[in-house]
Fold this sequence. Notes:
The structure holds 2 protein chains of 2 kinds. Chain A has helices at residues 80-89, 108-121, 144-150, 165-177, 201-206, 213-229, 242-253, 264-268, 290-301, 317-320, 337-346, 352-359, 361-367, and strands at 4-13, 18-26, 32-36, 50-52, 57-60, 62-67, 92-97, 125-130, 154-156, 181-184, 197-198, 210-211, 233-236, 259-263, 307-309, 382-392, 411-421, 424-428. By secondary structure, chain A is an alpha/beta fold. In chain A, strands 1, 2, 3, 4, 5, 16, 17 and 18 form an 8-stranded mixed β-sheet that branches. In chain A, strands 6-7-8-9-10-13-14-15 form an 8-stranded parallel β-sheet, with helices on both faces. Chain A is globular and about 65 Å long. The mean pLDDT of chain A is 96. In chain B, strands 7-6-5-8-9 form a 5-stranded parallel β-sheet. Chain B has a 4-stranded parallel β-sheet with strand order 2-1-3-4. Classes of the chains: A alpha/beta, B alpha/beta. The A-B interface holds A 199-201, 203-208, 210, 276-277, 318, 321-326 and B 21, 98-100, 118, 120-123, 125-126, 140-144, 178, 181, 204-207, 209-210.
Amino acid sequence: MKEKYLINAKIIDPKNQINEVGGLIIDSNGLIKAVGKKVTNGNLPAAATKIDLKNKILIPGIVDMKVFVGEPGYEYKENFKTLSSAALSGGVTSVLSMPNTLPVIDNVSMVDFLKRRGRDKASINIFPTATLTKNIEGKQMTEFGLLKRKGIVAFTDGLKAVQNPRMMSRIMSFANQSDSLIIQHAEDNVLSEGGCINEGEISTRLGLKSIPALAEKIIVQRDLSMLEEFPCRYHISQISSLKTISVIKRAKEEGLKFSTGVSINNLSLNENDIGDFKTFLKLSPPLRTENDRLELVNAINKNLIDVIVSDHKPEDEESKRLPFAQAASGASGIETLLSLALELAHNGSVKLEKIISAITCNPSKILGIKKGSLDVGSDADLCVFDMNKFWSVEKNKLKSKSKNTPIEGRKLQGKVALTFVKGELVYKNN
Amino acid sequence: MAVIKKLKAIKIKQNHLLGIQDLSFSEISDILKQAKTFIALNKGSAKKLDTLRGKTQINLFFEPSTRTQSSFELAGKRLGADVMSMNVVNSAIKKGETLIDTAMTLNAMHPDIIVIRHHDSGAPNLLSQKVNCAVINAGDGAREHPTQALLDALTIINRKGKVEGLKIAICGDILHSRVARSNIYLMNMLGAEINIIAPSTLMPHSIERLGVKKFNNMKKGLEGCDIVMMLRLQNERMQGSFLPSAREYYEYFGLTPDKLKFAKKDALIMHPGPMNRGVEIDTNLADDINRSLIKEQVELGVAVRMACLKIFCKKI
């Protein structure tokens, strides 16, 4: 590989506290050789070809901490190849893949399969998770140590919380011993049984069973109480309600160590968007009120939420064209994660640097992976975007195999121009 | 017949009757006006018209129903339509076919009107997006049952002259009730004041946002009411998870002569049926011809459904 020179970029790398106009050199091994304001046209060999970024923004490749792939078992919804092209067009270069496949990822042989498929078919970095419990039944824990040695970076039951508190406390205790990261989908199964929408006026009007905010709060509160007794690397997958924020705030004030994520959907949409039974907006956790949304945005500013995820869950038409209660939950979102997050910067609710941190260095720090920064000597995984380019979301132009975007027709400002993985230019927007 | 011809210029914007929420005040008045003309017809000896001659009406019931289904069937037949009732509960359609596929199959037979009842809220809306004919909601999940509310309004108007200014109490399992929701929207629009009475476990979240007052105390909720609408309490709700027992429910939320005294002296009793005598309503009150409108509701139900079939069938 030849050396590449990127110049005239506005570089934002929160981990290294870089926020300046400059350039970046990719060496012949695809690693970052130099970065910053000193990399200018004048300082580079005159004969070399340079990529002039014309003041576009250069950030580390995005790390998306919640992505459902579809392989194995649901290839008709998404496979590694379609996921890769979707991710790259959204500037995402690393994903944490959820274990809710068919069969689920709960044993060592499945990890080998996943890694092989990922290596052969994916052009992004796949960081696989395994389940916390065998077959997501919440009864028997998986082999954290052995799975971790095989390359599993985190453990989660994905779509389900471990309900039994005794089981959960043992998981925490065991996870600590093997230094494993555990991620909880915070939702009490009994309180949310049959529910598909936030509890409130909308659920009453639509006559749908609801998922009360209490179902989320109660699991977070339970887990954080246990975390005091059994400290371990603990991450709350996604929160959706302001009630949960107050629990998190109190725990942080008491000095408890854990991290929290939120889906871009819960930051950009609310329950009113469901309108007349739009199943593409049936999500887990559900969209809640505008007040909840505003508080979630606020919680990012107050460092109570660390990570923004796409919660990319591709679903085919057959799973969505059903009465609301029967339809699958989840939305496709990896391609629009950055652009939608930029809305928060454009409207002044969150600073750009904060948004970039929540999708680059924060997730990689939690996961303990060498991604999400422009460290010299690390893989040149890069995302270059035009902050002001206008575009509107059209589902048929999306690269994901499933077209269940919750923001069809939404006008966005800011679009990915170039994406690099390990120094290779793998996506270019025309 | 002569009366019916007078009302030709009825204007309805919607193609389908999916819920009261989609209707405007003038559309509702038109439906009620039209229904009134059918009341006398239904009492006469020659009950059949040819308004919908040559039209096909399919009744698609995914939930068991006696009165609504027979009422729609009779309404269609009296207007001269060819009516086919599909009892999906026991048929092959239930075995794995999606609602959309069922809709496509039926659509290929060119019906003019489909009457649907479904256990999932919003199912009629989904159906209406996929077929070329008019869709009438005969009850979906816990969302809406528009024709029931319309017939309730007609029954009230028939006795009290108007709905405007009346105080109406709706009492019972509001949480699971589509009848309650449709009635709240409709009676509100027609200018009534509405009290909702239910045990707190059967009271929907934020119900007051629908423009009603809520009560856990039946006697207080009934104070000054002109109409007392009782709702059916399903058996499975009585056994411990929502309520301690039928006995406890009857004691606090069953309509008894004792509690009825708190309403106005001439207050009338309604019930969408089927009733659980001795659970939600005292058996003598249910049969009291001076107070109970329950039989009249069934009678006027046919007239209201005839009006809906006629008006919405025309649109397509």
